[in-house]
Amino acid sequence: xxxxxxxxLILLFLISPLLAVNAQEEARASFFVEGNQAYxxxxxxxxxxxxxxxxxxxxxxxxxxxxxxxxYYRMGKLGQALxxxxxxxxxxxxHEDIIANLQYVRLQTTDQKxxxxxxxxxxxxxxxxxxxxxxxxxxxxxxxxxxxxxTVVRLFYHREILLWLMxxxxxxxxxxxxxxxxxxxxxxxIGVILPKETTVxxxxxxxxxxxxxxHEGAEVTIEEEAEDWxxxxxxxxxxxxxxxxxxxxxxxx
Amino acid sequence: xxxxxxxxxxNILLLWCIFIxxxxxxxxxxxxxxxxxxxxxxxxxxxxxxxxxxxxxxQLSSSxxxxxxxQGQSSQTQWINGKVSAQIDFRYALIPLRTGTLxxxxxxxxxxxxxxxxxxxxxxxxKAANVPAAQKTAFVKSFLSADKAYPNQQxxxxxELYIKRxxxxxxxxxxxxxxxxxxxxxxxxxxxxxxxxxxQSFEVYTVTLGLTPxxxxxxEIGSASLHGEQLIQGRRNSLFDNFGSSFFSGQRKPxxxxxxxxxxxxxxxxxxxxxxxxYGLVGNYAIQAKLSQEKVKVGESTTLTLTVxxxxxxxxxxxxxxxxxxxxxxxxDQPSYDTQIQGPKQLGRxxxxxxxxxSQPKKYNFHPVTITFFDPENKSYETxxxxxxxxxxxxxxxxxxTAVGGDSLLVQKHAxxxxxxxxxxxxxxxxxxxxxAWTYSSILLYSAFxxxxxxxxxxxxxxxxxAEHSATNVDxxxxxxALSKFKKELxxxxxxxxxxxxxxxxxxxxxxxxxxxxxxxxxxxLTAQEIESWLQEKQVxxxxxxxxxxxxxxxxxxQYAASSFSGENKQQIYxxxxxxxxxxxxxxx
Lengths: 253, 589
Fold this sequence. Notes:
heterodimer, A: alpha+beta, Serine Threonine Protein Phosphatase 5, Tetratricopeptide repeat, SH3 type barrels, 3 domains, five-stranded antiparallel sheet, B: alpha+beta, Immunoglobulin-like, 4 domains, 8 helices
């Protein structure tokens, strides 16, 4: 009897993480459904809180970010809405709904941005933006696996076509490795201005020279983060410091 | 020697100025060249930072009472009674924007991380002196073509700058008054002209604006101002005057000139005889109507163009109302407006186009189109009317099909117009619960897949190596198993074969097979001589080779003389064979 109790305890200990995971998933499902309901009832503050609960504990999902974008837009918070649509784009970069809503919200922002940034970062970002990091990694793994399979087959069958396939997939693997490396390390965090109007200073304190002003929804690149201040770049010639609280910061996922 | 001394002293003084002077208490104060003046004067504000060797430009807070222009900075170091004092002056030109007692904005300067504020200064600004225009060197004036007008009736605003001939001015900037109650048209710029006033000759520059009041009531047009700099040329009196500037250097004196405010009475439209369809259109207009095609088939389209032209602002013209047959489908195009300025007049042209698609074969007659406006010259309401030519519609292909085969499937298509914009709806699918974030398990999975390829390659490489080496392995295995095979064969012969003749033959074959296995050859075909030479090649002892030869001979003999191969003799042969082969095996290793 004693032995039986011991083994039951061991079993419970082993399956407890699985039970906890299931409980979390159930809670998430309930938050999500209730969030949708609150949105339909136009209780947008409650909906936002519930959607944010879905995203707790490192859980990320493009659809939930999209719903949060819609919710904050309905609350009249253009900056938050834009920020969440941009986050949704990180996970679902080709989703038509997200692209449409992002464009719709962007049309309502005040600050006009001249897209003159031709840095290699910018060029690379526009080139790789249609795929997520995870997708780039999957491409790499697939291409690499095919390369090695072709290489192994060629050990036994010396056909010219196999050599060409080796070169093709080998080059593909190298290219994708470079792409993954850059996609992983190159993108800078981006930020969206949250207040209706915010002042950009020349240094991280309020006594510094006022350089220019940005308005809600302006998208910036984050160059450096200090304790309460962030160095931002709006256009190549418009750089400066703003308070961290004025920004919705989006780190590359 | 003396030179060296002066050089050394100079350097010490410089170092003293740099390092010692900032240690003193810093003073920062503001001063103005005068404390009273007229609205047309300008004031020089000097911000002085004392007892420092360097300082950044002070920050002057903006003020609605002044226009502030930074003029530059100068620094000086003085040695008085053995004390060194250094100061930096920052100069600003202040142009007052109103009369009264005005407070000069406070300035702050940051030196070595500490902020200093300037002292407050008040100045008294009075109206400009009432000097006859002819006695002035420069003046401005503005006037309206009429002091009364109706809404949407254009009047001309003229601004004139008079500059006495010979007076050098530069950097002229004209600032319009506040004109938000008007629609403003920039009129053609006039060339400067010369006018003589009170015996003085003036160059006159003119700016004209077409102003169309947008509302009724009294509208005040504020002062327009002109800012500029007067160039005062002069000769240096001594070598120390204006040191650093050119010999015939000039000074720039900023100035501002301001016009008197104007008032316009925007009159209400007369209520008497005001037509019901009058919506505030002012001017004098004509209207034209045209159909692109007067004969069409059912389903085909024709374009109706209504053109309104006349004196007045085009943008204020609305589309004339049309009463059309309900069997006509109408698709309106965006109207186009064009207003051109010709002298003081504005000529407006508005074009309204619409595609008309008839759905019945008949003659369509249209009601005349009217336009009503107020003519300010005659101070009366006018109505213009135009007839639209009738439209003749014949039965189209769709009608013919209907007549023959019942209901037609042909439907007139037209572009769908977007009426509004909104966000796309929420995502309610449970896919939203999938975790898209990077997890350790996914990283492990991708890494495993990534390294699976090289692992697979290593396995293939091993497989190939094994395949290549398997041929030589057979020889080795055959050689290594030769002795045990021989022993097994000998045991079999002992137990199974009894007759002397077959025993001798079997032992001889077993011996040959052993050598064959060792030499990787077909053993039974080997001759005694071949065996001997192979063993010699393998450096087997001669004594052992001769023992083997004897054994072969004995076995051969037994095949023909069976009596010599029986009993104890047979057992000796077995033992000898085993012994010889074991020794050969030992030497071959």
